[in-house]
Amino acid sequence: MSTGNFKAIIVGAGPVGLTAAIVLARAGIDFILLESRAKLVVDAGASLVLQPTGLRILAQLGLLDAFFSVSSALSILKRCDHNGVDIGETDVPLRFLKNHGIASRVVSRYDLTKVLYDAIPPSAQAKMHPNKKVRSITTTPSTATVHCTDGTSYTGSIVIGADGAHSIVRSQMRTLALADSSTPSSQINDEHPFLATFRCLWIRYPTHADIRPGDAAETHGYDLATQSFAGEDTTVTGVYERLPQPTTERLRFVPEDEEEIVKRWGHLPITEQLSLQDVYDARVSSGMVSLEEGVLPNWSWDRLVLVGDAAHKFTPSTGAGCNQGMADCVVLANELVRILAASPEPRTEDIARAFGSYQEQRFEKTVAGCAQSGGTTAMATWSSWFERLLDLWVAGNPWFLTYRLNRLAAPGIAATPALEFIPDEGLPEGRFPWVRSQGSLMRSVEV
């Protein structure tokens, strides 16, 4: 496949941006990556949970062994209420193992980004630039140019926004669409498209002697829930607190906000041995963010396209956000390979068709995932009498779990998107066979 002068500009070097870089490199598509932070791989943020969806993608990329070496498999999730009363266990990761041959795994953001970065060929790594904060984006009928605050500019064929919930690429999409009088109002996203109902305090601390890597625990109750995942060296606890009022405005927090939450809720049990105050006192790092939720109606405009949190934002309760962003990159890469196989210099309408097909394939899946994640957070925080009832009497019921995971979830997980231009190998197998890639684009890349 000849890609001519076609070049993608990726904005953002988080796990989703790095996944985009890997799949474009595997497809032979030229790219550059711009990251606002001083380093491409940084030790920042809370841990992530990769579900079979994301692990299926890592398997096809040949990265499972590297990922397994820095992550811990989850097994049983213990749940209690605010008084420490046991409200039942769930064994979702073990059911995933049986159904799909692979269990959910917890990993630090640093370790995941390091595995992804190391998988990018050195020649492609040379095209990845830190300290590049985007100021604006301009387009012509055949190009898109990203202008950075340091005065540099980069011109390519498309811009892929992998820059998170507060995406500058998304903001520039809106600005450009508003400036174009021919753009229908239905194709212009809201300025603040996501709604935050909860805020999250995350705390990283050394894994306690009585906690095993892979242990998971949750505390449920009115207005606040916690979720903890233990790694080899450190454990991360997320504290999800309902806001006084939902808001679409971006919220910023300072250390005093963290201390205020801990002062109010510090007595709550995190595990049988540790309280919230205990883990906060033992912290090696912490932070606080608002938990935006929502799915954009429009994921692209002209030569700009969004992936991951820039296009759809989930609460962390089901661990779906990063996994779904990785799947976005797979589908988008397939569509780009398809149009480049037809022409190394695709027209704007060809690019629009590829972007439209990408969103069409991903939209319903992300809408359903967002609703499930938000519903899980609402249930754990007992947002209504009905959600409290579901949490206490239904969510942990083995019969319900069997129905939900085998009948509802498994077919969709087995059909996780796969790259069509590289061999579909390295997959573990379970009761529900993976829907294998047909490899319809492999010849396009090989030529």
TrEMBL record:
Residues 7-341 form the FAD-binding domain. InterPro entries: FAD-bd, FAD/NAD-bd_sf, FAD_mOase_fung. GO terms for molecular function: FAD binding; monooxygenase activity. SUPFAM superfamilies: FAD/NAD(P)-binding domain. The keyword Flavoprotein applies. Its cofactor is FAD. It comes from the Eukaryota. Keywords: FAD, Flavoprotein, Oxidoreductase. Gene3D superfamilies: FAD/NAD(P)-binding domain (3.50.50.60). The keyword Nucleus does not apply. Belongs to the paxM FAD-dependent monooxygenase family. This is FAD-binding domain-containing protein. It comes from Cercophora newfieldiana.
